Amino acid sequence: MLARLTHAAGLSATGDPAIDAALPLPERYDIPAETAARIDDARAAGRRVFAVGTTVVRALEGAIVGRRCLVAGSGVTDLRIGEGFERRVVTDLLTGMHVPTESHYAVLRAFVDDDLLAAATRHAEAAGYVNHEFGDLTLVLRRAGADRVRGAGLLAS
Fold first, then answer.
1. What's 142's domain CATH number?
2. Is 51 part of a structural domain of the chain?
């Protein structure tokens, strides 16, 4: 089942360390009522919630902060997602390839431990995968019944 949302995706990196340290900047999102309902139904039933893109992760996780369930509507998130972040909405992720200097890479650290992520990055580089929005994708899947650190696998196309 597919659902949609709108999110004003910003920069993940500029190449300037001082600017990159401030990223990501606050971003607007809009979650339709049907999307919020579908996601809450999936969560209640223990089903997976896939995000397509790290910015979708940020919008959904930002929209539930301080709430018991996902609420439809517009808002702004300044949420920073990284290692140790306890995801409440998104279980799995399909995203472009990212490199360690990007804020979008930090989001991957909320799904996968550093060793697996580093190994996947090395594999992608050795295989010639193209990073960011330039072609190749990463699929991060939760393993049923497993924890965050050992419970995710990375697949690349």
1. 3.40.1780.10
2. yes
Instruction: Write down the pTM of the prediction.
Output: 0.82
Strand partners, 138: 95, 156
Distance from C-alpha of 112 to C-alpha of 145, rounded to nearest angstrom: 15
Burial track 111-148 (b if 16+ CB lie within 10 A, e otherwise): bbbeebbeebbeebeeeebebbeeeeebebbbeeeeeb
Q: Is residue 75 part of a domain?
A: yes
Return the structure tokens found at 6. 């709108």
Q: What is the pLDDT of residues 83-120, one digit of tens each?
A: 999 999 999 999 888 878 788 888 999 999 989 988 98
Torsions phi, psi for 40 (to 5 deg): -65, -40
DSSP sequence for the chain: -----EE----S--S-HHHHTTPSPPEEEEE-HHHHHHHHHHHHTT---EEESHHHHHHHHHHHTTSSS---EEEEE-----TT---SS--EEEEEE--TTSHHHHHHTTTS-HHHHHHHHHHHHHHTPPPEEEEEEEEEEEPTT--TTTSEEEEE-
